[in-house]
Design goal:
Blueprint (H helix, E strand, L loop, with lengths): L2 H9 L3 E6 L6 H14 L3 E4 L4 H4 L9 H12 L3 E5 L7 H6 L26 H18 L5 E5 L11 H15 L2 H8 L26 H29 L5 E2 L1 E3 L7 H4 L7 E3 L9 H15 L5 E5 L18 H11 L2 E6 L25 H15 L12 E4 L2 H8 L11 H14 L4 E4 L10 E4 L7 H12 L3 E5 L21 H4 L1 E8 L5 E6 L4 E13 L3 E6 L8 E8 L2 E6 L1 E3 L1 H14 L13 E7 L3 E8 L6 E3 L3 E3 L5 E2 L3 E3 L4 E7 L5
Parallel strand pairs: 1-2, 1-9, 2-3, 3-4, 4-5, 6-7, 7-8, 8-9, 10-11, 10-12, 12-13, 13-19
Antiparallel strand pairs: 14-16, 15-16, 15-17, 16-20, 17-18, 18-19, 21-22, 22-27, 23-26, 24-25, 24-27
């Protein structure tokens, strides 16, 4: 039994609850909190996330009495604790004693106290004090009966430009390159005379006054991710040294650029996500679905943890609208449908002061008679009905590449043909039609195994290492279908343009050579004509393609590239490659992508349903659990399906009716069950 199996058994299926901050409240409130938690079906709380100053009010002076009482109260109430190390919030006494723990920003200014994440992850002093409080916590609570999981720090993220960072960066580079000649070659330092002759000459790349060496900046992004990971590993290893049979996690963030979660995920028992889809954005649930697919994929399809979401409005945007009735439930079930094994919130009780005083909570300022709390009660009841689903996962025949190295290369380094790429936007452009047509999708990295898939979608893979490029080529040679968008395979892992013409890594794969990249002028459009006579508009980008073994599926119908290929098909080994050399209008792009998927023999399990009805399937050896979620607040829907609706207990024969914002979870026998 894994640590996560034991955790699921302990909580009886899905973890349900939220961040609990009792240090912000009079002890008289604690008992009322536990009573209301029990009423709501809460079985798990994250405790102590920002409590360092309350646990260690002075250096070396510890006050654990209040936490002892809270842990005992929660245990008596049948509520498990996900206990946090409080190291995301160094106390003010630490920053006054050692101001060097403050992160220096890229402009050379110190970060200062009163914000969040006010520490340099490379600071030896910060790490020493963080290890000290972690050791004290682990020594005191590792065998407390309430403890069910360790929550290491919170939302790792600071990027620091301190001297300690420079020292650590140099050590990281020594480990990576071994000697200065190798580093100078990797960074192409002969350009602009930037050659290093001593390791001490290398510093972190703060704000450039002209332009920055792109390989240096790329390595600094990699270093920062690894420095943060070192902080996590140090605290993880401390708590595991006391007790090794409970899960250890930390919480990640949505589309977070500064940490490579593919490197982090193997070090945790489960990946956990904090996500706040904007209720004012009508498409936010689509972006959320991608995040959930990513987090399921980070550990090879294992269930993940929804660690934070909002019960209603948040407080971080200029306009913070409420979630209309039913949206919180629908969003929670959406996460569960894509393999989340928890539904947790920030936070349990709304705070009276501080920046997040208007951030919604499970128990809002308006109390237990509020709409939000009543919806929380209903959600807790439904999650108990869904307990058999916990621990199950999903599978897919389609994968989409999402890689932090590629993201950093595309957005963090200057000197590209155009400087306004958005890697998340281009990934979502490729993902959205698959979501709208109900295709299950896994997310892969350049180092992932690809043999389980029929189709691989590759959005703007500008930077890819040799191993990743060969994995994609091998996938196609072995019979897979690759759909790839422009500006892919251009540079190697050191951000150096690959030799022998664009796109160096994929020239044979796409069956064409690119003479030049032609970014479009403002408002420039061009016509594209497909071989079957369809016409479309394109903009933003063009490749000047010269066909070799590939054939044109579409050509430019006007302009200086008239007659040149805009979309290329190439047979590569036993596989098929479709390369899109421009930014097609959405309808044409979506049609091409979906036609490519269909030609590979992939069929969506619920093709033909409206796009506002989301369909996702979790499965065990014996059952499939079909989640049907209606994201429309106006239109209902009928879905042909047969089985038992776990939310109502009713047998469904023929079809299920979904009300606006309605949901159903249909249990049916697995077609491959013995």
């Amino acid at each position: 039994m894994t640590r996560m199996d034991a955790f699921r058994n302990r909580v009886g299926g899905f973890a349900f609850g939220g961040d609990y901050n009792p240090e912000q409240w009079d002890p008289a409130v604690w008992r009322e909190d536990v009573r209301l938690m029990r009423e709501a079906g809460v079985n798990t709380v994250s405790l102590g996330v920002f409590a360092w100053a309350s646990l260690e009010p002075e250096p070396g002076k510890y006050e654990f009495g209040w936490l002892d009482e809270v842990m005992d109260l929660l245990h008596a109430g049948g509520i498990s604790v996900n206990l946090a190390t409080p190291t995301a919030a160094p106390p003010v006494w630490l920053t006054h004693l050692h101001p060097e723990v403050f992160p220096v920003m890229a402009d050379g200014q110190p970060f200062g106290f009163g914000n969040r994440l006010h520490y340099d992850p490379s600071s030896p002093i910060y790490r020493e004090y963080a290890a000290r409080i972690t050791t004290r916590l682990a020594g005191r609570y590792s065998f407390h009966p309430a403890l069910a999981m360790w929550h290491i720090s919170n939302e790792y993220g600071p990027t620091a430009y301190n001297e300690a960072s420079s020292v650590a960066f140099r050590a990281w580079l020594r480990r990576k390159y071994g000697d200065l000649k190798t580093l100078n070659d990797a960074w192409t330092t002969h350009f602009w005379g930037q050659t290093y002759t001593d390791w001490d000459q290398i510093e972190v790349p703060n704000i450039p006054r002209t332009w920055m060496n792109p390989a240096r900046k790329l390595d600094f992004k990699r270093f920062t991710s690894d420095a943060l990971l070192e902080c996590f590993l140090a605290e993880r290893d401390i708590v595991r040294s006391f007790r090794d049979d409970i899960p250890v996690v930390t919480n990640f963030m949505r589309f977070f650029r500064h940490a490579d979660y593919w490197r982090w995920a193997p070090e945790e028992d489960a990946v956990a996500l904090d996500i706040y889809p904007d209720p004012a954005d009508p498409d936010s649930h689509v972006s959320a679905a991608f995040q959930y697919d990513l987090f399921r994929s980070l550990k090879g399809g294992q269930p993940w943890l929804l660690m934070e979401q909002a019960a209603s409005a948040v407080s971080q945007w200029r306009l913070n609208v409420v979630k209309e009735p039913g949206r919180m439930r629908l969003g929670s079930l959406q996460a569960v449908s894509r393999a989340a094994d928890s539904v947790m919130f920030f936070q349990w009780r709304a705070g009276r002061g501080g920046h997040e005083r208007f951030h919604s909570a499970m128990l809002p300022h308006s109390g237990p008679d509020s709409r939000t709390f009543k919806e929380v009660l209903d959600l807790g009841r439904e999650l108990r009905l869904l307990a058999p689903v916990a621990g199950t996962t999903s599978r897919s025949e389609v994968a989409i590449l999402f890689d932090w190295d590629g993201w950093w290369g595309l957005e963090e380094t200057a000197g590209l043909p155009r400087a306004d790429f958005s890697y998340p936007d281009t990934v979502m452009r490729h993902y959205t039609p698959l979501w709208e047509h109900h295709h299950p999708v896994d997310v892969v990295a350049s180092a992932s195994e690809l043999g389980a898939y029929k189709v691989l979608v590759v959005p703007n893979a500008y930077l890819i290492d040799d191993d990743g490029a060969e994995r994609i080529r091998a996938f196609a040679r072995d019979g897979g279908t690759v759909l790839m968008s422009f500006f892919s395979g251009v540079v190697d892992a050191c951000n150096r343009v690959r030799p022998d013409g664009y796109p160096g890594a994929f020239r044979e794969l796409i069956g064409a050579k690119i003479d030049e990249y032609w970014p479009a002028r403002p408002h420039e459009e061009f016509a594209v004509e497909f071989a079957d006579g369809r016409r479309a508009t394109a903009t933003w980008w063009r490749d000047d393609l010269h066909l070799e073994t590939g054939t044109a599926l579409a050509t430019y119908a006007d302009g200086l590239l008239r007659g040149r290929a805009a979309v290329v098909e190439n047979r590569y080994g036993a596989g098929r490659v479709v390369y899109i050399a421009t930014l097609l209008e959405r309808a044409a792009f979506d049609a091409l992508l979906l036609e490519t998927v269909a030609a590979a023999g992939v069929r969506a399990p619920f093709d033909g349903l409206p796009a506002h009805v989301e369909c996702a399937v979790r499965e065990s050896a014996a059952h499939e659990y079909v989640f049907l979620l209606n994201h429309s607040a106006e239109a209902g829907a009928s879905v042909p399906v047969t089985g038992t609706d776990l939310l109502t207990g009713r047998e469904v024969t023929g079809e299920v009716e979904l009300a606006p914002l309605g949901a159903a979870v249909i249990q049916r026998p697995h077609p491959q069950a013995p």
